[in-house]
Amino acid sequence: MNKILIICVILCQSFVAKSYDAKILSNQNKSINGSSFTTVGSDGCQHTTIQAAIDSGVGEVRVTQETFVENLSIVNKSVKLIGGFANCISATNNVNIIGRTTLDGNSVDRALFFSNTLNNITLEVYNFIIQNGRSGDAGFAGGLDVRGTDQTSFILSNVSSIDNNGAGLALTDIGFANFNDLSILRNSGFNGGGIRSSNSDFIIQGDSRINENTANNNGGGMYLSNNSTLLAFSTRLNNTRKGIEDNMAKKHGGGIYAESGSKVTIISHRILTLFGELGNDFSSFAVSLNIAGDNSFEADGGGVYLTGSGTMMTVNGGQIEFNSATGNGGGIAVKNNASLRFETTLEDPCDQNEFCNWIYNNSAGINNSIGGGVLAESGAQVFLGNVNMNSNKADFGSAVYSNGSSTKVTIEGSVIHHHTPSTNRDGKYILRAFTGSEIIVGFSSFALNDGVDATFGLFQADLTLAGSIIFEAFYGNSVVTSNSSTVNTHCVYTHDSSTLTGINIIQSPNTPFVDEFNSDFHLKTGSLAIDACNTVSYMPTLQDIDAQNRGFDVSESADLEGLYDMGADEFWANEIIFKDGFDTLDPN
């Protein structure tokens, strides 16, 4: 089991265990009359308002499926709110939950405010729609504003926070939060239109979505700061994709903005723990259709914006697609010593009709923009493993732009294809390395890209090409254009070697692929790229695009330098060819 999943299992078991303990705590919270619960409703329940039930001191509050116009306040007490009961009798008997209860803030104040300074306090909310809340403070939410300590737990299930003035959900100093079947929709905040987190740890799982939220500053879907930690699992159910979509920030990070040491981990796989199952194996978490910037501000990071030392995003199966920025980094912008690791490390990582890792059709702005898919600047560290990158757009560096001293981008086992100029975007260079940065490309495949001047454009930067295929015969561009730069080339298959110097460079007009025009980038039988390389210049750390081991010896092929094949695919003799997510341009 790989390192990230080992970490995940430990974290998940801890999180679920805390969730379990929290439920026990709330059940043990007795009122002064000995009852462990109370009911709220208009047809003969014990209370007619939720606030009155909370103030009664009872730990569990059961609410009928009605609309309650209230602004709830909970301070230093554990409370479990369960909504959606058909009537008061059902609530008393804890049966017949037919829907959800609506909590309406009436645009007066936050719909629900929770504050805790004690140890071992838990807030649980089930089956609620929370709407029309209002916050006058840029740091708070209009929907749910939850503040606590590292001993505070917060659980949401089947909850929607919608149409709030202020973030749909704000977390401050929360030790553990677990959100299942959560919808954060059409909220408008300052930093964080959907979710704002400061120094808090939370999981998003189940049928969850963060959609159509707006930030007047950064982080349209989500804003994470002060060492916050997000663990998000694949959430597509019944063929309806869920994730972070259709959000907008007037400045940076249309989907996600993370800073000051915050960690974002996306896992599109099923994880088994001692306490339950998280995620699934048949879908990918999507960050899509988000926008950074407006006509008044050239913003970066249409899908994701990462900044600051210690800030990190790890994606183990995910889709970054159809995002746009008015400035740079249409898909992802990584800046100021932040890091990004994008990979798939499981055997049989996704259903064969799905797409595990996809950076697709993201667009940077139209004014000398850089980094259509990924922008790495100012000491950023980026690893793109087993990624299908295609159709991203920018003026310079359609797929990747790397800039600045100590900035490093490593690409392994990836397929980069179908990048071309577009209306208002010049599309010069597929990968652009600038002023002190470094790009390393190992065992990857390039095809059907039109970089205008060249596939790789270097200015005072370093490039290493090892074990890779750069086959751009269709457009006929040069492989590299270089100015005061260093290029190290070892074991490369290309249509044109005139701009390359190095060891074991194979130039051929014949495609090494099965059918690149239909996006099948597997090596065809008899290709010179089979059994051509050793690992002196680059040692691969991942399996190939089909989750097969590298270094398979094909007896029919002469070993040129070693047993490793060039490109993203390792050819296995008599293998059944699966396209594994590379069989179409559009993953949808």
Notes on the structure:
- Strand 49 and strand 50 form a beta hairpin.
- This protein is mainly beta and 588 residues long.
- The chain is elongated and about 85 Å long.
- It has an 18-stranded parallel barrel. Strands 4-7-9-11-14-18-22-28-32-35-38-41-44-46 form a 14-stranded parallel β-sheet.
- Helices cover 6% and strands 40% of the residues.
- Residues 1-34 and 575-584 have low confidence and may be disordered.
Largest sheet: 18 strands, parallel, barrel
Mean pLDDT across all amino acids: 89
| Proportion of residues in extended strands | 35-45%
Q: Count the helices. How many?
A: 3
Residue runs with pLDDT of under 50 for 5 or more positions: 1-34, 575-584
Number of strands: 50
- Give the % helix: under 10%
| Bulk shape | elongated
First-to-last CA distance? 29 Å
Structural class: mainly beta
Radius of gyration: 26 Å
Short account of what is shown:
By secondary structure, the protein is mainly beta. It is about 5% helix and about 40% strand.
Layout of SSEs?
Layout: H1 3-28, E1 37-40, H2 50-55, E2 60-64, E3 67-69, E4 72-75, E5 79-85, H3 88-93, E6 101-104, E7 112-115, E8 121-131, E9 141-147, E10 152-162, E11 167-172, E12 176-185, E13 188-189, E14 195-198, E15 201-205, E16 209-211, E17 214-215, E18 222-225, E19 229-233, E20 243-245, E21 248-249, E22 256-258, E23 263-267, E24 271-273, E25 276-278, E26 285-288, E27 291-292, E28 304-307, E29 312-316, E30 318-321, E31 324-325, E32 332-335, E33 339-343, E34 357-360, E35 374-377, E36 381-385, E37 388-390, E38 400-403, E39 408-412, E40 415-417, E41 431-434, E42 438-442, E43 445-447, E44 454-459, E45 462-471, E46 478-483, E47 486-494, E48 502-507, E49 513-515, E50 520-523
Parallel strand pairs: 1-2, 2-5, 3-6, 4-7, 5-8, 6-8, 7-9, 8-10, 9-11, 10-12, 11-14, 12-15, 12-16, 13-17, 14-18, 15-19, 16-20, 17-21, 18-22, 19-23, 20-26, 21-27, 22-28, 23-29, 26-30, 27-31, 28-32, 29-33, 30-34, 32-35, 33-36, 34-37, 35-38, 36-39, 37-40, 38-41, 39-42, 40-43, 41-44, 42-45, ...
Antiparallel strand pairs: 24-25, 49-50
